[in-house]
Amino acid sequence: MTVERIGWIRALTAHPSTELKTLAGQLAEGCELRLTSLPQAGLGLLTLTDGAFHEPYYLGEFPLSSCAIELTRPDGRKAAGGAQVMADDAELARSLAILDAVLAAQLPGWERVSALVEAGAQKRAAEDGRRAAILAATRVDFTMLNTAGDGGDED
Fold first, then answer.
1. CA 37 – CA 26 distance, rounded (Å)
2. Which 3 state secondary structure label does DSSP give 71?
3. What separation in angstroms does the CA of 145 have from each of 137, 141, 152, 153?
4. What is the pTM of this model?
5. What is the pLDDT tens value at each position of the chain, 155 positions in all?
């Protein structure tokens, strides 16, 4: 697989949440699931520092869900996984944590998760390319505004 673990959640969230929840349910079937961090949904605050007085201020809020789990297979193999996702959906965070654990430990079904990660990474790369093209199209060349040396202010 070409995607590093740090990019798995971003790649997986390129797919519909219903698909991710279904797969996580199938892969966790028959396993003991222990929550090491309860699935939570809430808001995160985006904090920036004022440039003049170096004091923090809050730019805004964003939805944030997180979960950490430990999965134990019937054969005794264990895997740990976790996820934080910008969504107001604790169940999605739990499902992503399961998929993270399965893929990290290469438990049965990891190939399906790996294929989703690869496909999601391609979707995200295409999105990033489109966004970069839009950003490049909005760039302005200010060198033409330089009036020094154009002879306009000479006596």
1. 21
2. strand
3. 19, 9, 13, 15
4. 0.82
5. 889 999 999 999 999 999 999 999 999 999 999 999 989 999 988 899 988 889 998 889 999 999 999 999 999 999 999 999 999 999 999 999 999 999 999 999 999 999 999 999 999 999 999 999 999 888 887 777 776 655 555 55
